[in-house]
Design a protein that fits this description.
CATH architecture of the largest domain: 3-Layer(aba) Sandwich
Order of helices and strands: HHHEHEHEHEEEHEEEEEHHEEEHHHEH
CATH topology of the largest domain: Aspartate Aminotransferase, domain 2
Number of domains: 2
Radius of gyration: 21 Å
Number of strands: 15
Strand content: 5-15%
Number of helices: 13
Distance between the termini: 38 Å
Largest sheet: 7 strands, mixed
Structural class: alpha/beta
Helix content: 25-40%
Bound molecules: pyridoxal-5'-phosphate
CATH class of the largest domain: Alpha Beta
Strand order of the largest sheet: 1-11-10-7-6-2-3
Length: 394
């Protein structure tokens, strides 16, 4: 039924990635309304945290209002200080970089590797080995003189980053590893869930992610002190159960019980959505493998993607049209597609950062296009997308 309403709302447009409300969402949310537990305390908040922690294999989880707040809080509890530097891929959603700025720290943008488009471990290692040095037992960026204290890999499009070499380098240089797994819940790296591969991990349940609470996020960590502090900071740092006494500047970042109820229902669907989306990706792969000018994102040997956004690269010369014109051609046929994010080093927000070469991410940015791949995409719709794409190819 929900996909029927969806279709009407979208006036026949095949959406890029729509929320799929297919389980107990109504029941659980009704329970909140019936019991009056609607706000930021309630049984579904605890349950959602436990379920995410159990599912991904972390000791603690703290539910927050969105993925950006999760990143902000994670950086705070990990102890990243103003004027520190944090390594982050340049090819990511702007929130990854912004969260670093919220704590007064500075992003250092790292280029992607060309095969899976993720943060390039070799470029992380090169930066640390060649561009940093130790002074007074602190690692500093030789160019800026700032302390380098953390690395934030981002599993873009639901495909895991090659984490071991990054984690190894981070530990060698005493850096904290904060995973931005906003897009990647359920993705696995060598059989281990993303979010548990560093010191602290963050997820998003925004409307366009694989599962959604409308807006929501989660911090996961094995570090009990960090989890406690995250809980404290996200509830206004109130330090007395009765009196309104606060021991530091906190935030109103807790997820409400209503949204957590939706999260519990969506968690029940996550594995089935991953399976459906694996099937959708497989079908696209098969149909597009031999189209001249189309490059597919292949899963790395270490990776089990959650197949969040199915994305291809479009070579203008051999395909006959560049990615943006292909986007327009498909829009005319009521098919919604989307380019990737402008790499952060090119963004007006970050244009005054030290210059560096990021040619791989620039090329991916220029050529990438994400195709419709909701868990609710039906066979007919996907065939329509494939046919439209093949008709557009020269
Ligand atoms: C969606 C997203 C975020 C932010 O999550 P919100 O819930 O939208 O605040 C952060 N990082 C990445 C990589 C994302 O895709």
């Amino acid at each position: 039924m929900s996909s029927e309403i969806n279709r009407k709302l979208n006036m026949g447009m095949i959406p890029l990635h729509a929320p799929e409300i297919q389980g107990n969402e109504w029941n659980y949310i009704k329970e909140c309304l019936d019991t009056n537990w609607v706000s930021s305390v309630g049984p579904f908040v605890d349950r959602f945290e436990k379920e995410v922690a159990n599912y991904i294999g972390a000791k603690h989880a703290v539910a927050v209002v969105n993925g950006t707040a999760a990143l902000h809080t994670a950086l705070l509890v990990a102890g990243v200080q103003p004027d520190d530097e944090v390594l982050v891929p340049t090819l990511t959603f702007i929130a990854s970089g912004n969260a670093i700025r919220y704590v007064g720290a500075w992003p250092v943008f790292i280029d992607s590797e060309p095969l899976h488009w993720q943060m390039d471990p070799q470029k992380v290692i090169d930066f640390l080995d060649k561009k940093c040095g130790w002074t007074n037992r602190e690692l500093r960026n030789n160019e800026t003189g700032r302390r380098v204290t953390a690395v934030m890999p981002v599993h873009i499009l639901g495909h895991p980053v090659d984490m071991y070499p990054i984690y190894e380098a981070a530990k060698k240089y005493d850096l904290i590893v904060i995973e931005d797994a906003a897009e990647a819940i359920g993705a696995r790296y060598k059989d281990q869930m993303v979010g548990t591969l560093g010191d602290i991990g963050c997820f998003s349940f925004n409307g366009n992610k694989i599962i959604t609470t409308g807006g929501g996020g989660m911090i996961v960590t094995d570090n009990e002190k960090w989890a406690e502090r995250a809980h404290h900071l996200t509830t206004q740092a109130k330090s007395d159960p009765f009196e309104y006494i606060h021991d530091e500047v906190g935030f109103n970042y807790r997820l409400t019980n209503i949204l957590a109820a939706m999260g519990c229902a969506q968690m029940e669907l996550l594995e089935s959505y991953i399976n459906i989306k694996r099937g959708i990706a497989g079908k696209y792969d098969q149909a597009l493998a031999d189209v001249p000018g189309i490059t597919l994102l292949k899963q790395a040997p270490w990776a089990e993607s959650n197949f969040w956004l199915y994305t291809v690269l479009v070579d203008a010369a051999s395909f006959g049209m560049d990615s943006r014109n292909l986007m327009r051609a498909l829009a005319v046929k009521h098919i919604q597609t989307r380019p990737l994010w402008q790499p952060l080093h090119m963004s007006p927000v970050y244009e005054n950062m030290p210059a560096s070469q990021h040619s791989v991410s620039e090329e991916i940015f220029k050529t990438a296009l994400s195709l419709p791949c909701s868990a609710g995409l039906d066979v007919k719709q996907q065939s329509k997308v494939i046919d439209a794409l093949l008709q557009t190819a020269k």
